[in-house]
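can u pls check wat happens w/ pyridoxal-5'-phosphate
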Amino acid sequence: MTERPVDLRSDTVTRPTPAMLAAMSAAPVGDDVWGDDPTVAELYRVVTRLTGKEAALLFPTGTQCNLAAVMAHCGRGDEVILGRRAHVYAHEAGGASVLGGISFCPVENRPDGTLPIEAVRDAVRSDDIHHPRTGLICLENTFNGVVLPSDAVAETAALAAELGLPIHLDGARAWNAAVASGVAVEALCAPFDTVSLCFSKGLGTPAGSVLVGSGETIRRALRLRKMLGGGMRQSGLFAAACLHALDHHVERLAEDHRRAAALAEGLRGLGMFGDVRQATNMVFLAVPRDRCARLEAHLADAGILAAIRPSTRLVTHLDIDDADIDRALRAFAGFDAAATARAA
Ligand SMILES: *Cc1c(COP(=O)(O)O)cnc(C)c1O
């Protein structure tokens, strides 16, 4: 296989483009722990303007960014209300509990990623010595690629305000949400006290997530970032990649969404999978458990990388073009032919 593989496993697999690498190597840098890095300062000016928040802070990863945010809002013994399928709850190794002494109160997500408002209200603890203290509500946008409906977000934010609780958004893919919905990132961030934004997903940088919020919260997060081992030195290299991505890789997310829609359409046309759903840059399909391993191996032979599970997620990104979608669809179609031939 000399052809470049078509990697549909995640939008994190992108390599920096030559133009991004050039921007990184041209960036003026300094020691960011000393507050000396001019490119990091420029990133903060741009991101605070884009999000309408007072202050910003760069982290190596989204996981550390969310962890510092949760720890900035909550003390030991506090509890976070969030979705049972939220990344912060299910995919960050329980960091807030392990490292922050913070417990989780998961609520079942609706398929659109929102949390039923009555379930959130029920999850809020009363002032009782037996209970943990509710310290934070957390949402995620996009959620499995789905853009959260803004009225449900507003309702949850209004409840948080009524109860005097902070509310955090895991906005790892908020850029996709903004491009797909036509709603400005600032408006998506407005209901939240803090928002974490990933640059290493659809925007294609090798690393980098930014937390935005009030000056006071970001000052707490700065100390926490140091404590968590996330204070980097010439961080301007990453900030330069982020600035380049904001200039060149945001609007083009619409192409990822269009290609994911084409992939979903093509897969539906094959009639092999009962349920094919697509939202922004993600396609989900149901694969019978006993066919997963064979399908994954068949695709890999054809140069298509995908993690095939009973609920398979395929993700489009900067390194996937129209020809790659056609190639992937041909490979899926070839499996159907092979399986049908065996069955006959
Ligand atoms: C990727 C992701 C993160 C952060 O992940 P890192 O790999 O640590 O950068 C957080 N939330 C969601 C929803 C994500 O998809």
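Residues 61-63, 66, 87, 140, 170, 172, 198, 200-201, 209 surround pyridoxal-5'-phosphate (CB under 6 Å).
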